[in-house]
DNA sequence: CTGAACAAGGGGAAAAAACCCCTTTTTTAT
DNA sequence: ATAAAAAAGGGGTTTTTTCCCCTTGTTCAG
């Protein structure tokens, strides 16, 4: 019987190599490749460096090119690839980004290996495996008429500077704008994000990973 | 030959169980127990639920009882235990906390399995294994006459409130103090932490995990 | 017992942040 | 081609923040 071919993309060598051993214990699967980030994976894929995998296990938090970036690339270039996301990160935003970019499932790293095996089989056979947490978020999205907040380039730039000890005047200089324009950006964002103070803006930025601390 | 007995404490089942397989590939070691957090490990240890381990692999970020808490308990009750910390977290504060509480080494999870094995052997034989990053920090500590910053209860309380959209007046009410006293707290902290604005204070709080976002 | 350190509070003022309402120019979508 | 949005800028005001220097108790070690 042909084994189900799996590729692992994860920067934690200790994890990916261990996981490869775990998977090799299951007779249904074999790991045909292992890469430390999206870039490495894509390079290998483009040079057809391996047999086509049936499933890609994709970590979300990686240096160089993370899971979300990688997922976007896969969606554009190889939408046929079945990706099972694997992460320690259980926040809605990340999960939804992976799912909407075409991940067939999203498992947390504290998943039981038994469940993990089930998920692998389901993704292979049925095409997807959604845990309760994921389907919960999906239902949420449908029910609440989602007013997606989109931040513009320039706004993001402003937010990043607002997360420093600079005054607005200094920020204005930094962005080559008049302080009054900065005033506008601020007021705009306060309204859009339902905030009242710069403190709120900083907290928002941290929570949504606009700035990394 | 007697194998070196290892215990794994990590909340990521997929990781800990995979790692156990990896370790079992090395003939020198055997995994004699696996626990999802410090609490579970301590309970098992106290009820003498297993043979004494030669090495404990301790994850830092865990729910219920994290690596640092666990390390403190070990230092107090079983300082003879050789602990090798294992984490994705490479910030100085965390690393130093683990080391000063008696961890014999601190490995990042993106360590190569070969190095990992070396580390296990060294911890067992020599009693410690310090990677470059750790010894770098250790040297730092010695050179710079460390003025350890200690925050008082009340200060921490204030900082937490400062990380909200409340005004100082509201914070004062919340802490049952006069706004002027709050002024004092602020100025004090600004000086102590070398900050200039409340934004800086918020950033400090986030970085040092005084508030969780 | 005394002096240092600390917690709590205060006056007054300058700087920064927040708010409101308004104009001009540029983009964009239909 | 044109109407509607969005980007940039502004005037003027109130509130909040930041800063500096000062007083009164309390605690605690030498």
UniProtKB/TrEMBL annotation, chains A, B:
Response regulatory domain span: 5-124
Protein's GO biological process: phosphorelay signal transduction system; regulation of DNA-templated transcription
PTM sites of type 4-aspartylphosphate: 59
GO MF annotations in UniProt: DNA binding
PROSITE patterns: HTH_LUXR_2, RESPONSE_REGULATORY
InterPro entries per the UniProt record, alphabetical: CheY-like_superfamily, NreC/VraR/RcsB-like_REC, Sig_transdc_resp-reg_C-effctor, Sig_transdc_resp-reg_receiver, Tscrpt_reg_LuxR_C, WalR-like
Pfam families named among the record's database cross-references: GerE, Response_reg
All residue ranges annotated as the HTH luxR-type domain in the record: 144-209
Protein name: Two component transcriptional regulator, LuxR family
Species for this entry: Flavobacterium cucumis
Lineage per the UniProt record: Bacteria, Pseudomonadati, Bacteroidota, Flavobacteriia, Flavobacteriales
């Amino acid at each position: 019987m042909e084994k189900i071919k799996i590729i692992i993309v994860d920067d934690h060598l200790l994890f990916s190599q261990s996981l490869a051993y775990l998977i090799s214990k299951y007779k249904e699967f074999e790991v045909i490749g292992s890469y430390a980030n999206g870039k490495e994976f894509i390079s290998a894929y483009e040079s057809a460096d391996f047999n086509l995998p049936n499933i890609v296990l994709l970590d979300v938090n990686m240096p160089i090119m993370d899971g979300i970036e990688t997922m976007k690339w896969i969606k554009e270039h190889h939408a046929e690839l079945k990706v099972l996301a694997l992460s320690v990160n259980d926040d809605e935003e990340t999960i939804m980004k992976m799912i909407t970019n075409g991940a067939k499932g999203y498992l947390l790293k504290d998943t039981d290996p038994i469940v993990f095996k089930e998920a692998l089989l389901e993704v292979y056979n049925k095409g997807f495996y959604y845990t309760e947490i994921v389907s919960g978020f999906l239902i949420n999205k449908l029910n609440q008429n989602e007013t997606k907040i989109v931040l513009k380039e320039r706004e993001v730039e402003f937010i990043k500077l607002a997360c420093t000890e600079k005054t607005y005047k200094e920020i204005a200089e930094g962005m080559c704008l008049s302080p009054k324009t900065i005033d506008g950006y601020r007021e705009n964002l306060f309204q859009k994000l339902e905030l009242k103070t710069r403190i709120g803006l900083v907290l928002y930025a941290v929570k949504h990973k606009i700035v990394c601390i």
